[in-house]
Amino acid sequence: MRMSLAQRVLLTWLFTLLFLIMLVLKLDEKANWNWFLIFIPIWIFDTILLVMLIVKMAGRCRSGYDPRNGSQNLKKKVWYLVAMLLKLAFCLTLCAKLERFTDMKLTFVFLPLWALLMGAMVELGLNIFCDRRE
CA 80 to CA 86: how far, in whole Å? Predict the structure, then answer.
């Protein structure tokens, strides 16, 4: 299952728009919804991305796959998987904090996001400086 660039952009735009509409309704107090309900478009989009990533990673297990040219590609896909899980952890802890399910400090709520941003900065640095050496 391959999605074209236009389909991916449209899907991203649609879920972002739906999330922002629900967020504005919640913040304007027009809708008295649970915060977990507000984040459903984000989680549906993340689920689609995770399924596509896992399918691509599982494709490496099929017979006839040449592992010599894919070690960097696998590392990148594992990083994408870790990044998605960190984003999910941040969204869940943020919703729990906003719903007052837990008396957690905001520092702990934002730890997964900070780890995600630090990892993204490391990957960006590696992509920039490793490409210059070659």
Answer: 10
Identify the DSSP state of 29.
T
3-state DSSP call for residue 33? Answer: coil
Task: Determine what percent of the chain is predicted with pLDDT higher than 90.
Answer: 54
Instruction: Note whether 122 and 79 are within 8 A (CB).
Output: no
What residues contact residue 88 under an 8 Å CB cut-off, 6+ apart? 43, 46
SS3 content of the chain, % helix, strand, coil (to 5): 80, 0, 20
**pLDDT bracket for residue 132 (50, 70, 90):** low
For 85-130, what is each residue's pLDDT tens digit? Answer: 999 999 999 999 999 998 889 999 999 999 999 999 999 998 888 7
Name residues whose C-beta falls within 8 Å of residue 124's C-beta, 6 or more positions apart in sequence: none
Task: Name the nearest CA neighbour of 114 among 79, 81, 131, 90.
Answer: 90
Do the Cβ atoms of 108 and 77 come closer than 8 Å? no
